[in-house]
Prior knowledge:
The protein is built from 3 helices and 24 strands. It has a 6-stranded antiparallel barrel with strand order 2-12-15-14-13-16. A 5-stranded mixed sheet has the order 7-6-4-9-10, with no helix packed on it. The radius of gyration is 47 Å and the shape is elongated.
Amino acid sequence: MATPLSSPKHDLGSLRIHDGQRARTGMGKRLVYAAIPVVIFAGIVAAAFAFRSQKPVVEVAAAAKPDSAGPQTLLNASGYITPRRRATIAAKITGRVTGVFFDEGTRVAEGQLLATLDDSDVKRALETSRADRESAQAAIADLEVQLRNASIELKRAQQLHDAGVQTQEALDNASTTADSLRAKIALAKQQVLGSDSRIREAQQAVDNCTIRAPFAGIVVSKDAQVGEMVSPISAGGGFTRTGIATIVDMHSNEIEVDVNESYIARVENGQKVTATLDAYPDKPFPAKVRTVIPTADRQKATVKVRITIIDLDKYNFILPDMGVKVAFLEEQKPVEKVKGKDQGPQPVAYIPKSAVHSDSAASFVFLVREGKVERRAVSLGLDRGTEIAVLAGVTPGDSLVVKGPESLHDGDKVEIR
């Protein structure tokens, strides 16, 4: 006899985690947690090592030789070429540009035509004023004819009145008619004069539609094109121009520098100056102080000095707004040799003031040699504004750090920018 099949039973014991397996799982988690700080520490060490291996970036400048025999430099300054005569040419009226007869770089003469504006409306007004004058002149001719006839009538009336034929009333009427015509003629003549004034006004309006150069120079900016609206005031938003062109008189170029007020006592009118353009460092040219502007800028603590370029026509490479460095020269005095008398230490080099550092002990600079910086103590002399004389410590041609991190130390490896 067959035995009946029994239903399967759930074996919950198969889901039990044995003690050996539980121990191995807990140990793996502890190893992972313990490794996290080690990984973080290793990352910090690697980052610190990479940071320490990175070289600081510095800017360097060479120590310059002291001035050769001749006038000594009292002060250095920098500025720009600025023309004394620069003008932005604008129209006196609002109008549409119909013609532009120049381009950037065009040399123009005084009075030369630069541009024209739409003059159709003002020409109509001019024609109307001329027609009014002609009408007034024609009225004068008619009134003069009437006055001649009235004069004849008055003379006849006077004769008849004297003969006792005509009454006094008729004589008075004839006299009044003649006087009225004379007044009308005087009024018409005044109307002609008024018409002449309106004609001149209308003609001026027509002339205002023609823009001419006020002086000879070179066009450095073309500010309007045909079809654009121009106005002497900023009306119409960004769609209206306020200028036609900018003209510069190249013969009026001069140098303008700001001198620190602490050194302005070293500058005087007529003082000789040596100037050098940043664009042409190998082409210095002579100049002299024209004037020291008698006011100071309280924000920058500087005084403006204007310098005239000697023989400006020789230097056609001098352009407005170019950067320029100037050296104010000391007036050369005869050298008196005094036996047995020491004239004092002489500078061995000139260096930028930004290269000099100081601490409680002394002044020092950082020299760059073979990719490393070397701290070098220096003895300083005359301060020339942007430069300072060195009496001992460096030699001409030494590379000095003029810009770098504050944490720079002796022996650090650096990268030159």
